[in-house]
């Protein structure tokens, strides 16, 4: 059983901490903008305190969020995007399913078969089963890794088919701009793991077309977030 999150030695109530962390990871806001939004509600807290809350509590909240149940009918879309860290080129490798749900992502300095194999191996372990098919761009490393890890799984390699994975990079690009870049590989890996978990929770599935369905989804997501943070009334 997961232990409840401890807020000992924090002078602010858990509800305020959870709300600040939610604002930071859910919306394209800088730490200073979160500080300003809290101030508007009469909560005087520095942006540095918000940063410490995000680092300390963000990963704990994310681990407590319920993950989507895997299915053998899933399609995995894999893609990689370049990220500059301290003036050096790195690659963020990401896998999403047919609904745009982020399954996993890793930050690496290389763009080769070894990394592609590592991503597929991590996915197999995390999901507990292979997908129906994988879809990638034309990078040959994916095909080589697929033959090593899941040789019987269908692989479609075509840039036009992989828009779902490519589009999944856009929200992080907005955050990268707002944060004026990432300063370390570990910092990017930690941030994106929480950022994607929060996005997975709050962004409605593509099947939710009506305004009412979207509204209900967000209400359920907010309840799940508060439960993960241990701040239910």
What features would you describe in this structure?
The chain is α/β, with parallel strands linked by helices and 233 residues long. The protein folds into two domains: 14-64 and 203-229, no CATH class; 75-201, 2-Layer Sandwich (Nucleotidyltransferase, domain 5), CATH 3.30.420.10. The protein is built from nine helices and five strands, in the order αααβββαβαβαααα. It has helices at residues 14-26, 31-40, 47-64, 113-127, 140-149, 163-167, 170-178, 185-202, 211-229, and strands at 75-85, 88-96, 102-108, 133-136, 154-157. Strands 3-2-1-4-5 form a five-stranded mixed beta sheet, sandwiched between helices. Strand 1 and strand 2 (88-96) form a beta hairpin. Helix 2 packs across helix 3 (47-64), helix 3 packs across helix 8 (185-202) and helix 4 crosses helix 5. The model has no long low-confidence stretch (mean pLDDT 90).
Distance between the termini: 21 Å
Structural class: alpha/beta
Percentage beta strand: 15-25%
Mean pLDDT across residues: 90
Q: If you compute it from the alpha carbons, what radius of gyration comes out, rounded to the nearest whole angstrom?
A: 19 Å
**Lateral arrangement of strands in the main beta sheet:** 3-2-1-4-5
Q: Which CATH architecture of the largest domain is right? A: 2-Layer Sandwich
């Amino acid at each position: 059983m997961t232990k409840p999150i401890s807020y000992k030695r924090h002078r602010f109530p858990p509800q305020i901490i959870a709300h600040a962390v939610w604002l930071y990871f859910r919306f394209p806001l800088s730490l200073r903008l979160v500080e300003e939004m809290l101030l508007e509600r009469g909560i005087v807290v520095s942006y540095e305190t918000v940063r410490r809350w995000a680092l300390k509590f963000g990963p704990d909240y994310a681990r407590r969020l319920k993950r989507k149940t895997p299915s053998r009918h899933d399609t995995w879309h894999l893609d990689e995007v370049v990220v500059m860290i301290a003036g050096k080129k790195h690659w963020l490798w990401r896998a999403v399913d047919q609904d745009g749900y982020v399954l996993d992502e890793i930050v690496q300095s290389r763009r080769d078969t070894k990394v592609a194999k590592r991503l597929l191996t991590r996915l197999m372990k995390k999901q507990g089963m292979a997908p129906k098919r994988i879809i990638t761009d034309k990078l040959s490393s994916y095909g080589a890794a697929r033959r090593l890890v899941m040789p019987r799984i269908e692989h479609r390699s075509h840039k036009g088919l992989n828009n779902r994975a490519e589009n999944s990079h856009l929200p992080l690009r907005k955050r990268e701009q707002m944060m004026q870049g990432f300063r370390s590989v570990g910092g990017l890996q930690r941030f994106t793991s929480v950022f994607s978990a929060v996005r997975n929770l709050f962004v409605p599935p593509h099947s939710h077309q009506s305004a009412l369905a979207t509204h209900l989804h967000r209400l359920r997501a907010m309840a799940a977030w508060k439960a993960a943070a241990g701040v239910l009334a």
